[in-house]
TrEMBL record:
Chain segments annotated as transmembrane: none
SMART domains membership: AAA (SM00382)
Protein name: AAA family ATPase
Keywords: ATP-binding, Nucleotide-binding
Biological source species: Pseudomethylobacillus aquaticus
Molecular functions (GO terms): ATP binding; ATP hydrolysis activity
Keyword ATP-binding annotated: yes
Keyword Nucleotide-binding: yes
């Protein structure tokens, strides 16, 4: 999703100077070359070319805003010793909002890239709030609406729920609320009623997040007056309640691109896009194993079964292409395996408590 390539030292010196100078009401005599040296000896300080890690940028600005003195020594920026040892100081603790995001994602497989994107969203809103508190002009009013593009079962609804929680934690949303809908929830049977139905759904999401799954279905039909009416109503309400509503639209990548282009109001409001790739065969295997563990199942000959599962997942991904169900496929497979085990046990005259929890190789066929 993001590439973290090294820049030329000259560019990095310039960017470091700009970053330090942007801190509100602060001055520093730190030499950019010294900071660059620190960055080379402590690589986590400089990522993505000129971007400081989000945690350090937030903590640094937070400290700067709270200090009364105009002078600022950036936290944990002691120069390395002549012997090349790292400075003897504890690193700043992870910002609380990042900890909260990590907690929301705990237990999920293959979500690392999305955590980075949500970190960036949280950092943007958090820093703008802090700028407002210290009276800085030229505040950015971030666009909160997002397109989620990806195949079914790739975690779009899960990430939407996390965003709703994060936005509430930041104070962007009044409530920790996600209202889920699709075309059937917005479009009525008769022309003229669709606007009323759409308005009611949007009003139910005020103060939180509205998640519209398969939103492209509102525009995929030729001469679809009902879908057009729903979109026009949605755009108007997004404008009328721009400070009290977050809208996430989701669906297949190409279809969502066409959806956004279908209406100028949509294109201007949905400037952010998150791509949800298919899970890998290994990630799908990990998801299935987690499901089994959560339901207190054990696998006989687990190493052998894992190899067979990965092969099967890889083949299914190849065969089904864009129609592959990802997480949904895993859930269906899990239910099929448990059904096979149940049928096998019922054919026995008797079975032990241990056998109730053991999945044998034949259950995976």
């Amino acid at each position: 999703m993001y590439s973290f390539d090294d820049r030329l030292d000259a560019d990095m010196r310039m960017d470091l100077t700009l970053t330090i100078d942007e801190l509100p009401n602060t001055h520093t005599n730190e030499d950019p070359d010294g900071l660059l040296l620190y960055g080379r000896t402590k690589p986590h300080w400089l990522l993505a070319g000129h971007e400081l890690p989000l945690q350090n940028r937030i903590d640094g600005l937070e400290d700067a805003c709270e200090q009364e003195s105009p002078a600022l020594e950036p936290p944990s920026l002691q120069q390395p010793t002549d012997q090349g040892h790292q400075p003897d100081s504890k690193s700043k603790p992870m910002h609380s909002i990042f900890k909260f995001i990590d907690q929301q994602f705990s237990g999920f497989v293959g979500m690392g890239a999305f955590k980075e994107l949500i970190y960036r969203q949280a950092a943007l809103f958090s820093i703008q709030q802090k700028r407002s508190k210290v009276g800085l002009n030229g505040l950015l009013s971030p666009n909160r609406h997002i397109v989620f593009a990806g195949n079914p079962g790739t975690g779009k609804t899960t990430v939407a729920r996390v965003l709703a929680s994060v936005y509430h934690k930041l104070g962007i949303c009044r409530e920790n609320k996600l209202v889920e809908t699709d075309r059937s929830g917005l479009v009525a049977m008769y022309l003229g009623q669709t606007a009323i139905k759409t308005r009611e759904v949007v009003e139910s999401a005020l103060g939180g997040v509205l998640f519209i799954d398969e939103a492209y279905s509102l525009t995929e039909q030729d001469s679809d007056d009902y879908g057009t009416e729903a979109i026009d109503t949605l755009v108007k309400m997004m404008e009328d309640h721009r400070d009290d509503l977050v809208v996430i639209v989701a669906g297949y990548g190409e279809e969502m691109d066409r959806f956004v282009r279908s209406n100028p109001g949509l294109k201007s409001r949905f400037s952010k896009r998150m791509h949800f790739p298919n899970y890998t065969a290994r990630e799908l295997c990990e998801m299935l194993l987690k499901l089994m563990k959560q339901h207190h199942y054990e696998i006989e000959s687990q190493d052998q079964i894992e190899r067979l599962l990965e092969q099967r997942f890889a083949q299914e991904i190849k065969n089904q292409g864009d129609q592959f169900g990802n997480g949904r496929f895993v859930r269906n497979m899990f239910e099929s395996i448990v059904e096979s085990q149940s049928f096998r046990l019922m054919k026995q005259a008797d079975f032990t408590q241990q056998e109730l929890s053991v999945l044998q190789p034949q259950d995976f066929c």
